[in-house]
Amino acid sequence: MQNYWNRRFTNEGRIWGNFPSRTALQAMELFRKESVQKILIPGSGYGRHSDFFAVEGFSVHGIEVSDVAVDLSVCSTPLVRYFRGSVLDMPFSDDLYDAVYCFNLLHLFRAGDRKAFISKCAAQVRPGGVFFFTVFSEQEPTCGKGEKVEENTYESKPGRPTHFFTHEDLMDHFSPFDVLETGLMADEENHGNEGPHVHLLRYIAARKT
């Protein structure tokens, strides 16, 4: 996965621009309500969401496997710190966080690694802390395209298998936690050869009890 993302960030730079996904705005509402101060962002990329939350006053730690992406980050605030490495190798510090914001990363792992990754995130969240995850839904146009590698998992792009979540599947992944909210959200993007397009994402907000 590291090679795939290094190639993409080398060729496409700040792929998704500088503005946050609309899911980050919804996550921020939850974080304000829960008096969150410190956020962990696994798969932080070049920092568009880290920058957004830092500007809003949150302390942010990001984890990113692509050295190229981390080198593209431009946020100068001391509220942001990056760790280079795979999220499957967490933890990178002894910190406990109030919240995890994870945008479109979970669906890039195979079944065993998905649940292991969630457990690693939970281990770094304080009791009562919250999660906000977004994933590709089964309503994505690319669902079912490419080689099938697992149930609801297809290699629609070479070197990047993607799992497409149903509601029931997502709930199962977060069954150890108190689920606060789930839903579908249309998230607009405009990048590369794909031009303007919309991803149909599932999101889930949950609490560590």
Describe the structure.
The chain has 209 residues and is α/β, with parallel strands linked by helices. The protein has a single domain (2-207), classed as 3-Layer(aba) Sandwich (Rossmann fold). The protein contains six helices and ten strands; from the N terminus they run ααβαβαββαββββαββ. The strands form two sheets. Strands 3-2-1-4-5-10-9 form a seven-stranded mixed sheet, with helices on both faces.
Helix content: 25-40%
Structural class: alpha/beta
- Give the overall pLDDT as a whole number: 91
| Broad shape | globular
Q: List the strand order in the largest sheet.
A: 3-2-1-4-5-10-9
SSE run: HHEHEHEEHEEEEHEE
Beta strand %: 35-45%
First-to-last CA distance: 32 Å
Discrete helix count:
6
Radius of gyration, CA atoms, in whole angstroms: 16 Å
Which CATH architecture would you pick?
3-Layer(aba) Sandwich
Brief overview:
The chain has six helices and ten strands; from the N terminus they run H-H-E-H-E-H-E-E-H-E-E-E-E-H-E-E. The chain has helices at residues 2-12, 22-33, 48-55, 67-72, 111-123, 167-173, and strands at residues 38-42, 59-64, 80-84, 97-103, 125-136, 147-150, 153-157, 160-163, 178-191, 195-207. Helices cover 27% and strands 36% of the residues.
Question: Helices, strands, pairings?
Answer:
Blueprint: H1 2-12, H2 22-33, E1 38-42, H3 48-55, E2 59-64, H4 67-72, E3 80-84, E4 97-103, H5 111-123, E5 125-136, E6 147-150, E7 153-157, E8 160-163, H6 167-173, E9 178-191, E10 195-207
Parallel strand pairs: 1-2, 1-4, 2-3, 4-5
Antiparallel strand pairs: 5-10, 6-7, 7-8, 9-10
